[in-house]
Amino acid sequence: DIVLTQYPGTLSSSPGERVTLACRASESLSGNFVAWYQLSPGQAPRLLIYAASRRAAGVPDKFSGSGSGTDFTLTIARLEPEDFAVYYCQHYGGSPLFTFGQGTKVDVK
Amino acid sequence: LQMQESGPGLVKPSETLSVTCSVAGASIGSISSYWGWIRQSPGKGLEWVGSVFYNGSTYSNPSLKRRVTISRDLSKNHFSLNLHSVTVADTAVYFCAGDQYSSSWWVSWGQGTLVTVSS
Q1: Mean pLDDT over residues B91-114, rounded?
Q2: Which of B47, B102, B109 sits opposite A100 (nearest CB)?
């Protein structure tokens, strides 16, 4: 089974800062099937990035994704109050069909 | 596209957990559409439970040991999850999610419904 490991587990930052979240796979992945989500308390999860680097509809350009092989990243260019949330990477393919990382929590320093 | 889960809130151990997702703004039978269930146990991350394609084909997470049944009602435009023989470990927020065009990621999500397994 593919395992996705996200780090750090918690990232403490301040509004206006730039942060980079990492997602490492246990084996090489096709980047075409890597996505990132944002989970905020009391809200529906939100797709941010798909195919490793494409922004979903309505997602501001402060969010960007990159990576290939086993290493993928999500960067938030300038943190705003609504960006303090938990972020998950996800891969499609293999067994199980969908695998999620354990999440990175971005909280206020 | 809007999605809304509904469920019992509380289920007893060994019984069947049933949750339904009502979809508005798209037909769950439209070609290429893909729908599914993802859950989040308290204090834990996201876990894919199972999915149903527009043609009725279903897939589920092997870790759930064949306890998953996913069905759909095209006339009501909703799909349902039945998780059999539940234990306290199945306590979670159950999200429904889906998309009209992609089967590789989850574009639209419901708010989630908390189901607690307890006697």
Answers
A1: 95
A2: B47
